[in-house]
Amino acid sequence: MSTTIVVVGAGVSGLTSALLLSKDETNVITVVAKHMPGDYDIEYASPWAGADVSPMATADGSRWERRTWPELKRLAQDVPEAGIHFQKNQVYRREKDFQGEVAMMDLFDPNPWFKDMFDGFRNLEKHELPPGHDSGIEFESVCLNTSIYLHWLLGQCLKAGVVVKRGILTHLREAKSWSHTGKPADVVINATALGSLKLGGVEDKTLAPARGQIVVVRNECTPMVASSGTDDGPTELMYLMQRAGGGGTILGGTYDIGNWESVPDPNIAIRIMTRVVKARPEIVGEGQGIEGLSIVRHAVGLRPWRKDGVRIEREKFDDGLDVIHNYGHAGWGYQGSYGCAERVVELLEEIRSEQARAP
């Protein structure tokens, strides 16, 4: 017997969920979303991401990233059209940053849980560190060109028979009637990210934006880098990653929880560029400052931060509709995408088993 499924949301979480669900040919899947790959809107977080793999979870909560890494690694090796390439990742630590709360704390652990997950893990020598840093690590990671990867992911869904529709929902219950089959959905997958803050039937008040401002430049520079902190304030970061397939180099950034501002701040942009050029002067060449950067654009994205972390769980509405939630990934949506979608598939199997046993 087939299961009619409607996935709400066409970001990386929604599309990856739809793709993994489509592996079971008895699932009949429709994706409905306000925004699609190719759109650039502040409500749509996925296109703005870096995106690389820099583990952010604790060891106890690392399932999503552990399960995603093998698939991203495979795509980088075997599927060049997905827009993913290998890059070394250098993570720099400043001891003075660890007196209080640090964003992505586990990434900067000097003895991280993920050291056996990546190839080429090693501690950096003192001469390899940028000024002001005390220690660091390096490992082989990947960087995704989101403008290529999201379209590739959508294409894989279409190839698998998933039907995609544009639409705006005010209540999650409305998704029940959006299946392309004309039948009511048996199960709805909620992958609306920050949209779950206001979406009727969810209205998760623990969600907030984690504003990320970046600069995209034509200058090439590897490896990827990330620092545990800056001297420009607690919401400002320093990171760099070169996207695959001519996607430019991302200079970042900020992690400002609760800030909804969608317009890039020129003063923050100058600080972002200054920090990167100071740490990696080879990006512009000897003797040049930020004027040596060839800017493609300034951009802002709103990460879907959730106070209690990602929500991947079942819910049954009072009308009997079965819902699976998959949202609240903050800044790690890509690097946890397959692991989280795998859990969505598991939860669907639980629902189907219960439905099959029902009188």
Automatic annotation (TrEMBL):
GO terms for molecular function: D-amino-acid oxidase activity; FAD binding. This is FAD dependent oxidoreductase domain-containing protein. FAD binds at T192. Residues 5-347 form the FAD dependent oxidoreductase domain. GO terms for biological process: D-amino acid catabolic process. It comes from Sarocladium strictum (Black bundle disease fungus). The keyword Secreted does not apply. Belongs to the DAMOX/DASOX family. Transmembrane segments: none annotated. D-dopa binds at Y239, R303, G331. Its cofactor is FAD. InterPro entries: D-amino_acid_oxidase_CS, DAO, FAD-dep_OxRdtase. Keywords: FAD, Flavoprotein, Oxidoreductase. One of its GO terms (cellular component) is cytoplasm.
